[in-house]
Amino acid sequence: MGLVVQKYGGSSVADAEGIKRVAKRVVEAKKNGNQVVVVVSAMGDTTDELIDLAQEVSPIPSGREFDMLLTAGERISMALLAMAIKNLGHEAQSFTGSQAGVITDSVHNKARIIDVTPGRIQTSVDEGNIAIVAGFQGVSQDKKDITTLGRGGSDTTAVALAAALNADVCEIYTDVDGVFTADPRVVKKARKIDWISFEDMLELASSGSKVLLHRCVEYARRYNIPIHVRSSFSGLKGTWVSNEPQGDQPMEQAIISGVAHDTSEAKVTVVGVPDKPGEAARIFRAIADSEVNIDMVVQNVSAASTGLTDISFTLPKAEGRKAVAALEKTRAAVGFDSLRYDDQIAKISLVGAGMKTNPGVTATFFEALSNAGVNIELISTSEIRISVVTRADDVNESVRAVHTAFGLDTDSDEAVVYGGTGR
Amino acid sequence: MGLVVQKYGGSSVADAEGIKRVAKRVVEAKKNGNQVVVVVSAMGDTTDELIDLAQEVSPIPSGREFDMLLTAGERISMALLAMAIKNLGHEAQSFTGSQAGVITDSVHNKARIIDVTPGRIQTSVDEGNIAIVAGFQGVSQDKKDITTLGRGGSDTTAVALAAALNADVCEIYTDVDGVFTADPRVVKKARKIDWISFEDMLELASSGSKVLLHRCVEYARRYNIPIHVRSSFSGLKGTWVSNEPQGDQPMEQAIISGVAHDTSEAKVTVVGVPDKPGEAARIFRAIADSEVNIDMVVQNVSAASTGLTDISFTLPKAEGRKAVAALEKTRAAVGFDSLRYDDQIAKISLVGAGMKTNPGVTATFFEALSNAGVNIELISTSEIRISVVTRADDVNESVRAVHTAFGLDTDSDEAVVYGGTGR
């Protein structure tokens, strides 16, 4: 058949039973005639336990040593998984990130993959073994130190290995059945998406969907590696993420892929900014210099009477204090009136490449919110996404209203279709 | 000053408190002007917990994967120790066995060190860091697979690194104050030995003393690395093991270094062996072919009337069944009468280079046992050791009697001295 890279998260290998269940699934893929490479995370709570240990020893653990510590987690799960597979009568070999050729930069705790040289993995599968690779970890190019890739790193390991091995598919096994049209905990009638394009998936990921991280999807798009997100518990078909639909996947993409929401952000408003060239640049240079990442940025026309305007932006709540401090320092130079900080907001985003060619999407979106009695505070759009900021208290109702309005509910006959082009 | 290699066992780093205590001691050595390399074992029960996990997953874990699993243990302790040291304001870097250049053969679970190429460790200490190295582990020369050195492997790592780095001393920190003239749990009046020669230490180690393993002492003797065995809890001076006494160590070695005992062996007697050339060779070839290691071997003159003799040997109890099975197969060829197997024995050994030049040692030894009412079943000697086999029930009384007879008790004024030469 081909070469399959499978990735199993910590919840799939949380205990001996989980590891045995995963081993069976891996062996199944092998029996179907595939070469199989498995990327595995640390067991369940192992990483948290190691972090606790580090805290007991040192309040500010060194990055290098923290990485050395955390990488013990995958070492345990991968060795156990290899044992469990061998116990089923198939050959398996486990490899650390370093042995698998995952080369990174030297930024400990959130290293980026520079190169993957999977010679040992290729040899191992060519010899008939199932290769088990530690996710989340690599080795730095210059110092040969052990590094970790940061949050969601195992998904990135899987996609990067799939690219380097020229795999046919990268299967990401998780504890949900796939990517849904909205968070099923909020919208009971959310549908599992059978296929979604890389572009729409990227927008969903950056709008609050947590199934796949932006970084992993971006990597897959760059190397054109189809991702199959599916449950390690149910065995059902999940969601394919790729350039084009494949096989029995629906040939046509829905107009709207889904509704995402995000309550992890805060809103900062700079009030009374003189409306002249260079003021916005000064403000965002100050933010950038304090190493704060911002998300939405909105500036409206200034009031003619005052020549002053307001600039708003959103950012992760955790970085709010840093951003406000940086801005306060520039107040004299920029000459703005005041700052407002608001962390009781939610962002609701509608994502779908179809909105490019279907007018009325924006109107339907806003009408749905209005009918639900939800006030819109900020609006920001990309080619295939519309995002609004509302009160945090309104988030669940907003998502449900929009989901229903676009015919995404499971009991709708089909999605709403618009005629014409443009939105 | 010089370069010091320190080794801390699992009981010394059993929890966060232990790790912090060890960190202080390491920093003290650094403050005294030394370059410091630390070899560390896995925390307390970590290894046992990992073994339990492996058992849950697979009844017969693969050697390669078992080593991958177990080496997670030192990875955790070494990273935590490095963090704790940095927390005290000193630079520290941890290294895996592979990174430290510990090259082994490919025999998983009990690999032997072939070479040590400590380039990264040397660079690290030259840059002013304290280098922390994972004990017990290495990387195989041919396949680049992770290996472990088997029981007591961390001591061997420490001595091997000390040799490769041309260290001034290898300090082995443990949970006892040093090497004693007898097991202090058996002999309350046992004395701590200040200095002992490699030769005497080797004999003690192979006679049942558990403080240092034979393999580690042998390595130290070959490369002439002085070992200082001491407690990580008390801070007292311990026992120096070296070719010659150094500094304020006693210039003259005691006649008798100590009394060791071992209750882990069983005795096999081959009864009624025809007393002709080649019979003993057949018997021990059969044993060797079954990969059983034997210890003492005793054959006495045959009875003139029958032309038959008995051959006895001792071996680890765990290998008794295998040896007996191997011998039964040769019964027809050798033509012996019967086999006797006895696992209720103890071996008591008196060790000391002084016995070479002091007559009467053997006589005193046997008289002490006789006065204690202990029957001697087998006798075997080397140049600097006398061993006897007794009933297992007699072991404690035997050791105490011999210890007293040779003036080794702490309340004795001095050791018994013999005149003349030869024993």
TrEMBL record, chains A, B:
Its EC number is 2.7.2.4. Pathway: Amino-acid biosynthesis; L-threonine biosynthesis; L-threonine from L-aspartate: step 1/5; Amino-acid biosynthesis; L-methionine biosynthesis via de novo pathway; L-homoserine from L-aspartate: step 1/3; Amino-acid biosynthesis; L-lysine biosynthesis via DAP pathway; (S)-tetrahydrodipicolinate from L-aspartate: step 1/4. It holds the Pfam family AA_kinase. It is an enzyme of class 2 (transferase). The keyword ATP-binding applies. It comes from the Bacteria. Keywords: Amino-acid biosynthesis, ATP-binding, Diaminopimelate biosynthesis, Kinase, Lysine biosynthesis, Nucleotide-binding, Transferase. InterPro entries: AceGlu_kinase-like_sf (IPR036393), ACT-like_dom_sf (IPR045865), ACT_Aspartokinase (IPR054352), ACT_dom (IPR002912), AKii-LysC-BS (IPR041740), Asp/Glu/Uridylate_kinase (IPR001048), Asp_kin_monofn (IPR005260), Asp_kinase (IPR001341). One of its GO terms (molecular function) is aspartate kinase activity. Residues 268-353 form the ACT domain. The keyword DNA damage does not apply. Transmembrane segments: none annotated. SUPFAM superfamilies: ACT-like (SSF55021), Carbamate kinase-like (SSF53633). Belongs to the aspartokinase family. NCBIfam families: asp_kin_monofn (TIGR00656), asp_kinases (TIGR00657), PRK06635.1-1 (NF005153), PRK06635.1-2 (NF005154), PRK06635.1-4 (NF005155). Catalyzes the phosphorylation of the beta-carboxyl group of aspartic acid with ATP to yield 4-phospho-L-aspartate, which is involved in the branched biosynthetic pathway leading to the biosynthesis of amino acids lysine, threonine, isoleucine and methionine. PANTHER family: ASPARTATE KINASE (PTHR21499), ASPARTOKINASE (PTHR21499:SF3). This is Aspartokinase. It comes from Streptomyces ramulosus.
